[in-house]
Design a protein that fits this description.
Length: 408
């Protein structure tokens, strides 16, 4: 028997197959049975990954609830404790001013519905003012119970608008126009109130911060509007490239939305009648809300200078617009009384007046919005089961692959 010269002098096991690749293969063969217990079809990781959806969702909700409890504990409860020391003022409250405050708050919400109708793109379906108002009220209810406020309720508003026959692109353009326009109007009104209030009540250091934030917001909105209307083609191409690289999005759809938005905004800018009505309803929405606050403070026997009150109101709403808490909860509540006190209002009147205002400004729209949502989804004469199903749908979140309801 001949011996291969290439293998002469090799020890047993030192054959030609004992290369680095061969060692790696055998190493893999030795490790695989152990890893199979962890990574195999029936491994621990596969089983745990199947449970992840059931763990992540309650964990996320628990974190949100915990954050809200912290806000209530450290920002809202101290205001309630301070107000409890001045409950004697409740015996002197003026019911007429309370009723006026409630009426003005309702008119403020109604003006927001009129703003929605005014900014509908030309040719878009119009389901009627009643349904538009109820959709806005439903979205407001969601914005008051989840973080990120209006941003978090945009999905519900979009689904309701499209379910009522408004095309998806028209709904998106209308919601974007309404949100940006309302923000601009608030900042312009706030700037005007600050300019007038400085000679009346003096300069406050917070004015500088508010002025800087307002300037940044206005510049950002102006740049966005200019980019959409003047550079729509280039922006649409960029969005097309971005959309093609994001799973679940379509570059063609994003490009079309951008072009439709540019067309609608350009048409809105040329239509002076629509522009004037939009600015009017947006201004009335803020002014009537601030007037409601004035009435609730007046109900406790103190009449505030309207300009100074709007300065405090505007500063708190600009700060509360940051998408951190639901509708500025824990930001507006302590900040407005603090600013009113700096304008000469006693702390007891400022605290009780703001708390009464927030009952109708923040808390009352939650059940009212839930009722409005049910009225949109449940036909008349339906039973309690249909109501429960509608409420469950209001609180549920659509999945990432779930398409919006309705056409468009």
């Amino acid at each position: 028997m001949r011996t291969d010269p290439a293998k002469a002098g090799q020890k047993p096991g030192d054959n030609g197959d004992d290369t680095a690749a061969g060692s790696e293969r055998r190493g893999k063969q030795r490790v695989w049975p152990r890893a199979k217990r962890w990574l195999g079809p029936k491994g621990w990781w596969r089983r745990w990954r199947g449970w992840l959806p059931f763990v992540v969702k309650p964990l996320r909700r628990g974190i949100v609830i915990f954050a809200l409890l912290l806000i209530v504990e450290y920002l809202v409860v101290p205001e309630l404790v301070g107000a409890s020391k001045d409950l004697s003022l409740l015996g002197q409250v003026n019911p007429a001013w309370l009723a006026a405050g409630l009426l003005l708050e309702a008119l403020s919400l109604f003006c927001y519905g009129l703003l929605t109708r005014a900014v509908l793109p030309p040719g878009a379906a119009n389901p009627g003012l009643s349904r538009l108002f109820r959709i806005d009220l439903s979205a407001a209810a969601v914005a008051h119970v989840i973080p990120a406020g209006t941003l978090g309720s945009a999905g519900l508003g979009y689904r309701l608008f499209t379910a009522d026959g408004i095309k998806g692109n028209d709904a998106a353009v209308m919601m974007a126009t309404k949100g940006l326009g309302s923000t601009v109007v608030l900042n312009v009104l706030l700037w005007l109130s600050l300019v007038v209030s400085i000679p009346l009540a003096g300069f406050h250091p917070i004015y500088v911060t508010v002025a800087i934030i307002g300037a940044v917001i206005l510049l950002a909105v102006a740049a966005l509007a200019f980019g959409i209307t003047r550079g729509a083609t280039r922006a649409s191409r960029i969005l097309h490239a971005v959309g093609d690289r994001i799973p679940g999005l379509s570059g063609d759809r994003l490009e079309q939305v951008m072009l439709d938005t540019a067309t609608s905004l350009s048409a809105l800018g040329r239509d002076r009648r629509t522009l004037i009505w939009s600015l009017t309803w947006a201004s009335l929405n803020w002014l009537l809300d601030a007037a409601s606050l004035w009435c609730f403070v007046a109900a406790f026997g103190r009449f505030v200078n309207p300009v100074e009150l709007f300065a405090a109101y505007g500063i708190a709403n600009v700060a509360g617009a940051l998408p951190l808490t639901p509708a500025g909860l824990g930001v507006v509540d302590p900040l407005v009384p603090l600013l009113l006190v700096s304008f000469g209002i006693t702390r007891s009147v400022a605290t009780l007046g703001v708390l009464a205002w927030r009952l109708v400004n923040f808390w009352l729209p939650i059940p009212a919005g839930a009722i409005a949502y049910v009225s949109l989804k449940v036909p008349r004469g339906a039973g309690l089961k249909a109501w429960r199903a509608a409420m469950s749908a209001l609180l549920a979140r659509p999945g990432p692959d779930e398409p919006p309801e309705g056409p468009g």
